[in-house]
Structure formats: C-alpha cells, structure tokens
Design a protein that fits this description.
The complex is a heterodimer of chains A (270) and B (174).
Chain A: H1 6-16, H2 21-33, H3 35-52, H4 62-93, H5 100-150, H6 153-163, H7 170-182, H8 186-199, H9 204-216, H10 220-232, H11 239-247, H12 253-269
Chain B: H1 2-29, H2 34-50, H3 61-79, H4 93-96, H5 101-120, H6 123-134, H7 139-146, H8 150-173
The chains are: A mainly alpha (270), B mainly alpha (174).
Chain lengths: 270, 174
C-alpha cells in the first residue's frame, strides 16, 4: 500500500480528532486558500457522521431459540464423547479375550500416547474456558453496572446484591458510592451501603466517601446503614461525627441511639 | 471437566446475546438478505462452539469472533453472491420518529444514498469500514484480524472512506 501523503495524514488526524491546536490552525489557514480541500473535509465529516449512525436492525427472536437448540446438542455431544471414552477404557480393562501381558502392554502404550494428547487438549480447553469465563464476568459486570443506572428499584437492588459478591473493583465501588449518594429510593441506598462494607474494607477512599455521605444523608434508614457500615469497617474517624449525631435532637431517636452505640463501640476498640 | 465444559457452554449464551445483533447487522450491511444474515449468525456461533479450543487468550475475543464471521461470509460468497438492497420502508422508522416529516424524508433519502454507495464499494473496503465504524472494533483488533499493523488499518479505513465519499457525492449530485 502507498504511504499516505501529508494531506491524507492531516485529514485522518482531523477525523480522529488528534490534531494539536497549532496543527489545526495551520490546517484552517491552508483550507482558506484551498476551497476544494475544505469541501473534501466537509464531505468526509458529513459522510462519517451518516455512516456512524446507520440504523441497527433487530434480528428475529427465532435466532436465539435456534442457538439454544444448537447449544443443547453440543452439550449432549460433549457429554457423549466423554461417556464413550470412559466406556472404552472400562471395556479394555474388563476384556476377557486378551492375554493379560498383551493387555497391560496395550494399556501402557495407550496411556503413554494418550496422556500427552489429553494433557495438551485439556490445557487448551482450560485456556479457552478461562477466556470465556473472563468474557462472561466482564459482560455480567457491565450489565449490572448499567442496571444501576436505568432500571427499576428492585432491579437496582438485585444488581447491588450481585455486585457485592464480586471482586472489589474501582468501577464497582464508584458506581455503588454514586448509588449510595444519589439513588432516589431509600432501600437501594441502604443496600449500596451494606454492599460497600464487603467491597470497600481495604479502600480508604470508600471509607472517606462513607464518612462524607453520613453527613449528607437525611433518611434514617440510610443513616443507620451507614453507621453500621462505619462500625463494621472499624472506621475510628467516625467517632466524633457519631457523637455529634447522638446529641442531635433533630435526628430520630433510633438514629441517635445507634450513633451513640456506634461511637462507644469504636471508642472501646481504640 | 464436564461441569466446567458445561459452564463454558452456558457462557456461550451470554456471548450470543451480546453479539447476535452486531453480527446480524454486519452481514446485513455487507449486503446479505435478512434470512441469510440470521443463518450466518447461527453459522458463526456453530463454529464458535466447534472451534472453541482454537481460541487463544492473547488474541482479542472480538478479533477472533469477527475472523470467524469473515470466514462464514467468504463461504457464503463462494456459494452465492447476494446484494439485496433493502427497500426504503425497511429503514428503521423508530430511529426517525424524533424528526419532523421533512427531516425524516431527508434522512431517509440520505440513508438510501449511502446504502446505494455502499453497494458499489469494493468488498474489502466495505468490510473494513463496517468493522471499524459500524461494529466499532478498535484498529488494534482489526489489525489482529487482518494480520497487518494498526497504521495500515488506519490508512485502509481512510481510503475506503474516500472511495465511499466519491461514490456518495457523485450519486447525490445525479
């Protein structure tokens, strides 16, 4: 392929948005002198915009049914292949017609040759399964994170419950903190606080965020969940806030009591 | 091992749900009829299941998947070449509903122009444009797929765009 010339390189960089400010200015000046070049760029921009927004068609629902049938067949095939292999090994060992010496030699040979092949096959399958599992894990996480944004309250609770069983991850904790601070439904916020106990134990940023959230939350249920979370995480910086809360007459009695117990628990642990 | 294998196979359902629509649109935009495109998506997943041992972790998953899709396409082309320009009324109206009638007509007309121009584009150029701009594969993934450098992919995409631009604006002027 021919090496791109300077104009091509500039046009590509323009479309990618990778021109520096100085290059962009130089380009503008060049185009002011060359209307054909300007037109070329405008056409390219218009075309890429149209192309990028080509509508996506919906496949028929039948596709998934067909796929599931195919998957069942593949599972059966896999199970049968394993079954046949087992059956063959058993039949060799229980063979009456063969002399024991010859049988033993045949078995040893089979094991020798077969083991290498099986091991290689097994390794390949393990790698492929690991890749698939990783892909599935990522897909699930993306789905769950998107559920936190755009679904019903019960689905958001479900998403929080699943996310808390996963591995701690910056994106997950950020999403949970966002949910804790901004979700409109109290129960979802409570669940997010509970999930953060499990995921944020080692993360100072999570503890800071919980402390800040404690000052901002107005719902008694969420306040209690946060007090419990801070006590569970042994966050001693919460003592003074909890003491203040235990004296704050504007808070519900049950919150004040919980804050007092929390403060003394944390103080006692000091 | 049976449990692990079954676990992996169940995972394939999630992969199917995730990639069915993009692959269907990939085939559709390459010019295959709806039914053929659906069949080809099935063929892709049949091969995913059959050749799952050949997947290597160092290869991006999408590059592997679209490599299979390209093979399925090549086999389909070998059997029969289709270009079924979809009639205008199949352009998705729900996408257009947010616009006024005049805007909708202009939008439909532009899309129809684009589809006609795409039909005239050489197959490899259409494919690389679809992979990068429609299927949103990264240049690195397409480089894996085509066995060339990212820089080469970038230039190929650009030249395909230039070719499409010539076709598109020539048609529009007619």
């Amino acid at each position: 392929m021919n090496t791109p010339d300077q104009t091509e390189n500039w046009l590509m960089a323009w479309l990618d948005g990778s021109l520096t400010e100085a290059q962009r200015r130089a380009w503008e000046e060049k185009m002011a002198q060359d209307p054909a070049l300007r037109q070329q760029l405008e056409e390219l921009v218009h075309l890429t915009r149209t192309f990028d927004h080509l509508p996506q068609e919906q496949p028929s629902g039948e596709g998934e049914m067909r796929f599931l049938r195919m998957l069942e067949q593949e599972k059966q095939h896999t199970a049968e292949t394993q079954g046949t292999f087992k059956a063959r090994v058993v039949s060799i060992f229980s063979g009456r017609g063969m002399e024991w010496g010859a049988a033993a030699a045949a078995v040893l040979l089979l094991i020798g040759v077969g083991f290498g092949w099986l091991w290689q096959h097994y390794q390949t399958q393990q790698m492929e399964m690991a890749a698939l599992r990783e892909e599935v894990k990522q897909t699930q996480r993306i789905l769950l994170l998107s559920m936190l944004e755009k679904s019903s309250a019960s689905e958001r609770i479900q998403a929080v419950n699943v996310l808390k069983t996963g591995e701690p991850d910056r994106r997950v904790t950020d999403a949970l903190l966002q949910t804790l601070n901004f979700d409109e439904v109290v129960n979802v916020r409570v669940k997010a606080a509970q999930a953060l106990i499990q995921l944020g134990g080692e993360n100072p940023a999570v503890k800071d965020a919980l402390l800040n959230s404690l000052k901002a939350q107005k719902s008694p249920e969420v306040q209690i969940a946060l007090i419990d979370a801070l006590v569970a995480l042994e966050e001693k910086r919460a003592v003074s806030s909890l003491q203040k809360m235990s004296q704050d007459k504007q808070l519900m009695k049950i919150v004040r009591q919980r804050a007092a117990v929390g403060a003394s628990t944390l103080r006692y642990e000091l | 091992m049976g449990t692990v294998a079954n676990g992996g196979l169940d995972a394939a359902t999630i992969l199917f749900r995730r990639y069915q629509k993009p692959l269907f649109n990939f085939f559709l935009r390459l010019g295959f009829e709806r039914q053929s495109s659906e069949d080809m998506v099935q063929s892709v997943f049949e091969r995913v299941l059959k050749y799952r041992q050949t997947y290597r972790e160092e290869m991006p998953f999408r590059a592997w998947l679209y490599q299979i899709a390209r093979n399925v396409k090549a086999d389909a082309h070998a059997k029969q070449k289709h270009w079924d320009t979809e009639p205008l009324d199949t352009v998705r109206l729900d996408v257009l509903e947010q616009y006024s009638i005049e805007q909708q007509m202009a939008e439909t007309e532009t899309l129809a122009h684009l589809e006609r121009s795409m039909a005239k584009l050489p197959g490899d150029q259409l494919e690389i444009l679809l992979l990068t701009r429609h299927q949103k594969l990264k240049y690195a993934e397409v480089a894996h797929l085509l066995g060339c450098s990212e820089g080469t992919v970038k230039v190929k995409v650009f030249r395909a765009l230039q070719q499409l631009r010539t076709l598109f604006f020539t048609l529009e002027k007619q």
